Amino acid sequence: MHKTSPQKGWKVLFRTTQPAPPPLSVGHANMSRHLLAWNRLRRLFHNRLTLISAFIVCSVWLLTSDLRSPAEWPSLPGLAPNPPTPIPPPKRMSNANYTVPPLGERVLCVGPRGHLLTKSPDDDLKEIELEMPYPTPFTGSYEALGIDLTFMSADGRYGPYGFGAEKDSYTRQRVDWDRVDWARLQNDCFERNAHRFPPTAKKLENTLASYRFSFRNLSQIPEVRHWHEFRSTRRTAVVVRVWRGYEYMPEDMFYLRSLVAEAALKTGGEYQVILLVDMKDYEGNIFGSSEEYLQGLKSAGIPPEFQSMALLWDDRLLSSWYPDIEEHRTMWQVYQPMQLLALHYPEYDHFWQVELDMRFTGDAGRYLDRLTSFARNEPRKQAFERSTFMHMQQMIGDYDEFFNEVDKVHNGSAVIWGPLRIPEIQPIGPDPPTRFAKDEHFKWGVGEEADVIVTSFCNNVLNAHQWVFQGWLGGFSAGLKTPRFFCPPAIMRTSRALLFVIHEAQIRQHLRVPSEATPPSFALWHGLKFSFPQHPVFWHERDDFATQEKWWKGGPAKSSTGIGPDDIGHPRGYGLTFWWETDWPRQIYNAWQGRRLDDGVPRPWILQDRDGQIYAPSMLLHPMKHSR
Ligand SMILES: *[C@@H]1O[C@H](CO)[C@@H](O)[C@H](O)[C@H]1NC(C)=O
Ligand SMILES: *[C@@H]1O[C@H](CO)[C@@H](O)[C@H](O)[C@H]1NC(C)=O
Ligand SMILES: *[C@@H]1O[C@H](CO)[C@@H](O)[C@H](O)[C@H]1NC(C)=O
Q: Which chain regions cross the lipid bilayer (predicted)?
């Protein structure tokens, strides 16, 4: 087994917190101590014995296995001979320059009104600039990400997708949405643009006609796939997590339509939007036949316009592939369906997981592009270290100053430099170009696509005593001391390579960490490129520096490890625009759409009134709890 001691930095970060066991003292007069010691000795002896016997059995096995032919295997009824296939060490990525060239010019695609997009004002967003300074976010930066400083009214933003269509004042061409086939529009768009992509890029056939998921025992595809078996296609799947029985409200429809039109159609097919449908406790066998699948689709309640871009799955699929991972539920293993998506639909380089209860108040495709290009242009050095702090302009200034501050704390070095070694993982990521991080000057990784893009700051699990999943893991020899990180929420972009190695580790080694720790931890263990583009997030009180201080906690300069603030406590995030427990996004959205707010709920300060219209800046809202 491939074993390396953890890097020096980890000794500081992951000091053993458990006290050393007391020495065995049998000579003590105290009876209970005697018993305790005896039990301990017995357990030790027993463990040793088990280990020694296991070792002997294994050695004999290994020594003789070459001599044995499969024919000599005992053939018991129902127990097929299953000779162990040795697992070759994974191929590692080289340190070649992985800079991706820009794709050719985008070719216009046809939208839901049958017109070429951007040549059809009814399909256009109405973005405006306002004569005022753009609001400064609580965390994150428009400038660092290159997000346009524009505003939109609810009509300017969602009008193309049916917002306001019930009113006489709606001036856009109305659409019979049930007759729109978003999968076909996406595929037509890809075909118009196919010449811009490598030949390996493919369209996604209508998912009704080409459903590929199947139980592991019936699967026609290899159980494990590797990064080096696939060429880049330059395409990204945008995967929306939905479930059977979900009640689609008009605003969900506006959101989903906007996602397809802006991410897939307006980018000339660089993204493909897919609905990944959790069938919950559906009784039927959707994998049985196409009739049964269609019945399942009916039961899932997917609106007609999205049916041919929906892929159904259920818990049985997960337990068939991952029988040794004890938990498949979303809270623990939200990435399992995504891992299987990558395995069965490997024609995407990257997979964005997005949620139904999310909104892009600006153009969704452009927003994803900005997050992606920030990640692509970010150097690998200290990318993880930076992702453990919030960038707050009002505390430290622009992103360069934040960047330099993190560098200063690390004295030009880094804690993560190449793979973060743990005994279970043989990394696929490259070795760093220099032995020491301080000898590399932020060139490594620039221009290379990131393997994981997270959307909020990361935490060290070992310090996160408040985190309910802190003790949930399995298959690691260091147990709870295994270095791992979580970056909630599970809205992330993961590469095919990363999803493949997570899948392999789950089916072969039964390794498991909770959802929000899965992509970040595996990316770090494998030495894959990591990025946290700090997108703008607002707070419900304007210029509330006192609260900001409580999140900032002195920033990188005050951190003794350079990996997040020493004190991981912070105020509740109820009033943030992007935070798991916040309710402010709903208030912003309602006020923006002209709905009445509950008594005592103030008008969100980031909305701007002009000429009887309400305008919102460009940002990500999450979560959006439903309201009628
Ligand atoms: C990597 O390649 C790109 C274009 O192919 C080039 O612009 C860039 O300078 C290269 N980077 C390094 C570090 O060699
Ligand atoms: C295949 O696996 C599924 C789910 O794990 C199971 O229900 C089914 O009986 C299996 N089929 C065969 C032929 O073993
Ligand atoms: C950086 O250097 C200072 C002064 O030499 C030292 O106190 C500090 O521990 C170093 N920080 C790291 C992360 O190595």
A: 45-64
